[in-house]
Specification:
By secondary structure, this protein is mainly beta. The protein is built from one helix and 33 strands. 5% of the residues lie in helices and 47% in strands.
């Protein structure tokens, strides 16, 4: 009898450990961890990723699932992962909103101080022909805190143009939502119950200009930093500006705003993200069409002054090549900025990955032309992402040799540009991969979420990278 019980116990224990092992981070770059791999014709796209204060991760995405109610649209889903990579919500994600959107736009994901997920998106549930801005607050487990429909920042009867909402949890426990409305950028502050605190909202606008929201992040003392792209209209030069808004709605960087880039033009369709510097300021990286395909960086300090030269520091002095899609990381203790990007030859045929480090005043530290990570070659090197690790940076990119054969590669560099971890695969399964996003936890563990069509249609996958560049459980 004891032998039988012992056998049953061992079998049950094996089943438990097998289940846990299956749900954990993969240590095999050819496997990765699927979050949404519903192979029923779904199109699962546009992941976003934030760490849950060293207790795991939130990931969100859109899913055009034919199994949802008609008309099928891109619905909002999310998943919560433990620090060990275990899914806490149903596999393929928890639906947030069943929408009728036939295409996707940028949207917002953040986490607040109580570990609730915050998502802002364009909503068609109340009026399928009119997209409205909605914010929702979701606990680690349980029902939406602000109700099934969340907080609608714009009413269903409002037929103004709305686009690309972002959301940020402020240090005082509130939430700020920003979006584009017609030619303006709008901001609203919500308390913990989802009630608006700034009346009809904060409006950024200028006569004769179109303002389009670029990014939003929480800063110090309950404030937020917001950035936007402006221009006179279609085909005109696009410029980048920002401001810092206090908890009470005051413009801390002045009514004239802070000009990040106002000579030449951003590349058309480029709405650069920025990163918070942890000390009341922000680090920006962007690329331009005038001057032709060049990348720049800027560090705006807490008081709104520029640490780098006006209009930014160029990442390279090489006039023969061009460069696009920069990603920045910031090392707070030395005020250094790392930037990595896709380098291309003048015909934009050959691709590589290059990097540059700037000191606190914007002087390049890795040579005038930057550091060669991947030399120019026939493979496409795209969706470059970077996060700070130790005294240097961990950088990721999609290496696509041909259609359907992309992998994700990485390298870790020290602050002097020396290689800590030589190039290694993060996702080696050959498939089309895109929309790569990366983040770093307070413990120094990085994670990447990305689209991958290894199942025959786009799915959402995630992979962790430990500080020693290993994959899987530490």
């Amino acid at each position: 009898m004891k032998t039988v019980l012992r056998s049953v116990a061992v079998a049950l224990l094996t089943l438990v450990f097998s289940t846990v092992a299956f749900a954990q981070w993969s240590s095999d770059p050819s496997v990765n961890l699927p979050l949404a791999d519903n192979n029923n014709g779904s199109d699962q796209v546009q992941p976003k990723l934030v760490p849950i204060h060293d207790q795991g991760w939130y990931v969100s995405w859109f899913d055009a699932n034919p199994a949802t109610s008609s008309p099928v649209g891109y619905d909002v889903f999310y998943q919560r992962l433990t620090a060990g990579g275990v899914e806490k919500l149903p596999h393929d994600g928890q639906i947030v909103a069943d929408l009728t959107n036939s295409s996707t736009e940028d949207y917002g994901l953040d986490v607040d101080g109580t570990n609730d997920a915050l998502i802002a998106f364009l909503d068609t549930r109340e009026n399928r022909f009119n997209q409205q801005v909605t914010a929702t607050r979701l606990p680690p487990l349980g029902k939406p805190i602000w109700g099934r429909l969340g907080v609608q920042l714009t009413p269903p009867s409002d037929y103004n143009f709305h686009a690309a909402p972002k959301i940020a949890a402020t240090s005082d426990g509130n939430v700020v939502v920003a979006w584009t409305e017609n030619s303006n950028v709008m901001l609203q502050n919500l308390n913990a119950a989802g009630q608006p605190q700034w009346g009809s909202g904060i409006v950024f606008s200028q006569s004769g200009y179109n303002f389009s929201l670029a990014d939003l992040h929480a800063a110090d003392n309950g404030s937020v930093i917001v950035s936007w792209v402006s221009g006179h209209g279609f085909g005109s030069n696009s410029q980048l500006s920002a401001n810092k808004v206090s908890a009470s709605g005051a413009l801390l960087w002045g009514s004239a705003n802070v000009s990040i880039f106002n000579v030449g033009s951003l590349q058309f369709g480029n709405f650069p993200y920025f990163i918070y510097d942890g000390n009341g300021g922000a680090v920006f990286a962007w690329y331009t069409s005038i001057p032709a395909l060049q990348c720049f960086a800027q560090h705006i300090l807490a008081d709104g002054s520029a640490a780098f030269p006006q209009n930014g520091a160029a990442v390279s002095a090489n006039g023969s090549n061009v460069r696009v899609d920069p990603s920045a990381a910031y090392r707070a203790d030395t005020e250094e900025v790392f930037v990595f990007w896709t380098e291309e030859d003048s015909n934009q045929v050959l691709n590589g990955v290059y990097g540059q480090k700037f000191n606190a005043t914007g002087a390049p530290q890795w040579g005038a032309d930057g550091l060669v990570i991947v030399p120019l070659g026939n493979d496409q090197q795209i969706f470059v992402q970077t996060v700070p690790v130790g005294s240097g940076a961990l950088t990721f990119w999609v290496d696509q040799a041909a259609y359907g054969s992309a992998t994700i590669q990485a390298v870790r560099l020290a602050d002097g540009g020396g290689v800590v971890c030589p190039q290694f695969p993060v996702s080696s399964y050959p498939a089309n991969k895109s929309r790569l996003v990366a983040a770093i936890s307070p413990a120094g563990v990085a994670a990447l979420a990305f689209e991958d069509d290894r199942i025959g249609n786009n799915g959402i996958y995630i992979q962790n990278v430990n500080p020693d560049c290993s994959l899987g459980p530490q």
